[in-house]
Amino acid sequence: MGSARILAVDDERDTCEALAEMLSAWGHKVETAFDGHDALKKAAEFRPDVVLSDLAMPETDGLWLLRALKEDLPDCPVVFLTGHGTIDAAVAAIREGAYDFIVKPLDTSRLKVCLDRALEKKETMREVQTLRRRLKQLGSSEFIGSSAPMRRVFELIERVAPSKASVAISGESGTGKEMVSRAIHNLSTRREKPFIAINCASIPASLMESEIFGHERGAFTGADQRRPGVFELAHNGTLFLDELGEIPVELQAKLLRVLEEGKLRRLGGKVEIEVDVRVLCATNRDLKAEIKNGRSARISSSGSTSSRSSCRPCASGATTSPSWSSTSWTSSTATRRSAFPACTRRPWRRSRHTTGRATSASSATRWSGR
Asked: Does the pTM exceed 0.70?
């Protein structure tokens, strides 16, 4: 990890200063404190990324400091240094929220690993907070509602957005599948990269492979120049395939290979091209039934990490705004079941994709006509 702000706390001045000198040599900015009250005061001013404290100190010990820091700096990891005689107290500190403890005499290599992991945790928590702020902004601009069901929808989007997983969204037309895909992209680490959206139902079957994977000059009649497909246009970004079920099964198998290997070959090409694309797809068909009947490849259950969700419109006579049905998000390592409850958003207007070229490589590229 890079340079960080570390608060070193120890009632033995020489030990504390020696620890600070070592941490400074590692490239960190260090502040020292010699008791709990001094540490709490300096923490409020210094705003450390990690607190490294002795556990056994007179008057105000490490546990007192931990409890006080949880009120002022709840996201700051605290690592304790402890002697063999206070290991039980260190374990108790872990139960109360300390990040870790290291037994004296100090093992510098273990300390460095522990600090790196604590800083990684701090950075992860910071990213989560950033996502939550962005999600609140999204909630106010794209969705309507702050009810408990709506918050659970936000939590599901927040949970899947930071990952690299491909996501399959199934549901009837008008249930907001594209809105979910854009929310996932906007909250992901790829948000500054292209978002390419195409409607597979609007692309003729004869042109489907060329549109998705691109083609070389002379690959077929009328191919007078090389043309990249949507995978290449979405490189480092997100590709949203609306109505995935309209892609022929044999082409879905080729799509599956790209998802697994991160490589594609243009139609008529001889060279494999590496692509880094997160794929989000949507369909108004029953994915499980399509796979069972052999009309769809098992893309969502491939070796790559993936997630699935389903959504459906409200019951007739209720409201014209969409709602979310129960859904299960699955991956190659675990299965989680969550509720995708009823929610409302701004009046829905059907987006119309037509086949053609992407007009730009911005983070929200719309598919335009040829």
From this structure: no
